[in-house]
Amino acid sequence: MSVVENLEEIVFSLSHSGMFRSVPQRCLVPLPSIHELGMAMDAVSSVLFPGFYADSHVSPEQMPFYIGVGVDRINRIFCEQIKRGFCFSCEQEESQCRRCEAEGIKITEQLLRALPVLRERLALDAQAAYEGDPAARTIGETIFCYPSIKALIHHRVAHELYKLNVPLIPRIIAEMAHSKTGIDIHPGATIGDSCFMDHGTGIVIGETCVIGRNVRIYQGVTLGAKSFPLDASGKPIKGVPRHPLIEDDVIIYSGATLLGRINIGAGAVIGGNVWLTEDVPARTVVISNTVSQRPIFRSQEPI
């Protein structure tokens, strides 16, 4: 077997401080663990939908103990990982930063108190998936099988942490769901109850997007931004609302691209492959003109 020589030289080159000029290096504080956060989200899923994740046999008598074990695991992991998220952004490069630790404990408690409400909202999402797909035989099937539910579990947790100004951790949780489902939702996006993302693959929802209740979105839809404003140094200006506002009861069919801070009125239907950069009145159907490539607006009728 051949052996590479001069490994010491390679190790020295990779370890030399000069090699980290363009790469963030935080040696004095532990970084968030994607593996640990994955276990925390598994525990969250198990607590929100007992029996559908992890141990599939949970009797009513066992339920308080089952939930208790899950909540304890969520508490322990999130306290540490949220602390690490704050440490990642903290100017004090100290492994024993008390402020970051206190923030981790406080925000984890707020997240745990939000879980009952998140369960109610996710139950509505599962109901919407069942009602929105003729192929679904039961609500339980949507919880077990549909990427929409997995993506929304991750998103609703990530969004809670985003609202609490937790650094980094919401993005990690969002990207976990993205890698598993192909659905890319920024944790800053606001999504109303009874959301259903049918099939889901390739859906992109931007940070400042606001989606109302009972909205159905099909695969390949982009709710994105147009070109963004730059500051004096040519860098993007952060925090500017730049993604669509989707009102209640809207349906957006596959491949549609909606860009900018446009408003899609309640009950509107956006046809497949439409490219849209302007407001849509309520209860309007928008389809693509394959000749001019411009959208066609007309009063609502079934599609």
Structural class: alpha/beta
Report the mean per-residue pLDDT as an integer: 90
Radius of gyration in whole Å, from Cα?
Answer: 22 Å
Total strands: the figure is 15
CATH architecture of the largest domain: Orthogonal Bundle
Please indicate the percent range of residues in DSSP E strands (runs of 2 or more). Answer: 5-15%
Number of helices: 7
Give the proportion of residues in helices: 40-55%
Termini separation (Å)?
A: 65 Å
CATH topology of the largest domain: serine acetyltransferase, domain 1
Largest sheet: 6 strands, mixed
Query: Can you write the helix and strand succession as a string?
Result: HHHHHHHEEEEEEEEEEEEEEE
Query: By CATH's scheme, which homologous superfamily of the largest domain applies?
Result: serine acetyltransferase, domain 1
Described by the principal axes of the CA atoms, the overall outline is globular
Q: How many discrete structural domains?
A: 2
CATH secondary-structure class of the largest domain = Mainly Alpha
Task: State the strand order across the main sheet.
Answer: 3-6-9-12-14-15
Spans of at least 5 consecutive residues with low confidence: none
